[in-house]
Every structure is written in structure tokens, then in C-alpha cells.
Write a structure and sequence with these properties.
It is built from eleven helices and five strands. The chain is of the alpha+beta class. The protein folds into two domains: about 120 residues, no CATH class; about 80 residues, Orthogonal Bundle (Arc Repressor Mutant, subunit A).
């Protein structure tokens, strides 16, 4: 992995610093076309089972950042080990933005959705960051088991189809109904009624992405660790 080059690229992206000739030359040597948009992918899981790639950067012990060409993303995802989770950002010149998108997306992966694309969940980012507050739902969140919340999430993702959710989770449709009713009995909000969905969705996504800001801070620390005099080898 080109850890130092990636850190330099991230630094330039974060602080919008001018590209000097030394970095441009280094980018060309490493096969990076700075006039093209790239897509960030964040993998989560056992790093020993993650693919090696030149444009990669370890964020922490279980997450690795990759920067890929637009056409290289799908083959990369297709080759992943089935026990690895992936968040995929949008196509950007600014890799910092793409990495943050991928970080948010990877936090919404689960055993049934091992790849989450930010463009499909980006609206949730705005909801999570909004002033919407549902303290009553949050207070009851821990009283509901993870399997039931995951059932709710997949129910929402599959357009409130009990049959499709049951097929995905390999359970009887009545099991899906039972779990949704459990949420209703605990929170007073019915997942099968559109008016009650927003508080449940916002609360679930906030819980799932609770560590997002910490991960962004880790990313920022990588960028900040690069002093201006060290930007180019």
C-alpha cells in the first residue's frame, strides 16, 4: 500500500492546498490521474482477508480505505470475501468527501447487505444530522433486540414488503410481523404505518452510525499528522 502517498493526497483534499509539481509527478508514477474522479470504498472486517491494493490506507484495526477508478469498483466488490463489509462513496475529485461518504455507508452494512452505496442512503445522512429528535423512541431502543431492529431495517429497505423481507431473512412472514409488532408494543409506533416510520428510521440510523464522527476524527488525524514540510517525499 502507498500509505504515505495516500496520506499526502488526503491532506491536499482536506485542506484544498495547491498541487505542486512534486506531488503531480508522484501521482503519475503511482498511476493516479488527478483530472479524473475517483470512488472511495471502505472495507470493514478482518484486514487479513482484505485485498491488497496500491491506493489503500488503513484507518484502524478493522477498517481499510481504498481509492478506485470508477470502472474498477464493481470488479473490486465482486472479488471480496463474503465476510467483508463494504461502504461505497460517490465519484469525486475530492477524495476526502468520498471517504466520509463510504465511512457512513459501511456503518449501515449488515449480514444481509454487505455492500451499501452512499448514493442510496445519502438522504439518511441529512436526517441524522438534522434537528429531528425522538427521545421517546431512543429511550426504548435498547429494550428491543438487534435482530428485531435489523428486521425493521430490512422491512424498510424492501418497501415494507413482509414477504420480501421474510424471503431475505429466511424466516416465515409471520415472524416478520411478530417482530414489527414487538417494536410497536415497545415504542408505541407502528412500522407498518408510514406516519410512524420517520422516528423509527432516524433513531435506528443514528444508533448504527453513532461512531461516525469518531471515525471522521481518526481520518482527520491521519491528514493532520502530515506536516507541510513532509507533504512530498
Amino acid at each position: 500500500m502507498l500509505q504515505n502517498f495516500m496520506t499526502q493526497w488526503l491532506y491536499i483534499s482536506d485542506y484544498d492546498t495547491a498541487l505542486d509539481q512534486a506531488f503531480i509527478s508522484k501521482a503519475k508514477i503511482n498511476g493516479v490521474d488527478l483530472e479524473q474522479r475517483y470512488i472511495a470504498v471502505v472495507l470493514s472486517g478482518d484486514q487479513r482477508r482484505m485485498p491488497e491494493h496500491r491506493l489503500a490506507l488503513n484507518l484502524d484495526a478493522k477498517r481499510r480505505i481504498y481509492v478506485l477508478s470508477v470502472e474498477g469498483v464493481q470488479p473490486f466488490l465482486d472479488a471480496l470475501s463474503p465476510d467483508i463489509f463494504a461502504g461505497v462513496g460517490g465519484a469525486h475529485f475530492d477524495i476526502s468527501t468520498g471517504i466520509k461518504e463510504a465511512l457512513f455507508a459501511v456503518l449501515l452494512t449488515n449480514e444481509f447487505e454487505r455492500v451499501v452505496i452512499f448514493n442510496r442512503v445519502g438522504y439518511l445522512y441529512d436526517l441524522v444530522k438534522s434537528d429531528l429528535v425522538y427521545p421517546n423512541v431512543a429511550a426504548y431502543y435498547e429494550r428491543i433486540d438487534d435482530e428485531t431492529w435489523l428486521t425493521f431495517w430490512e422491512y424498510v429497505q424492501h418497501m415494507s414488503s413482509t414477504k420480501e423481507t421474510a424471503c431475505l431473512m429466511l424466516v416465515h412472514p409471520k415472524t416478520i410481523v411478530y417482530r414489527l409488532n414487538k417494536i410497536c408494543a415497545t415504542t408505541g409506533l407502528n412500522p407498518k404505518q408510514g406516519v410512524d416510520l420517520l422516528p423509527l428510521i432516524v433513531t435506528y440510523v443514528r444508533k448504527q452510525t453513532a461512531c461516525f464522527e469518531n471515525l471522521v476524527n481518526e481520518l482527520q488525524s491521519l491528514s493532520d499528522s502530515l506536516l507541510p514540510r513532509d507533504k512530498v517525499d
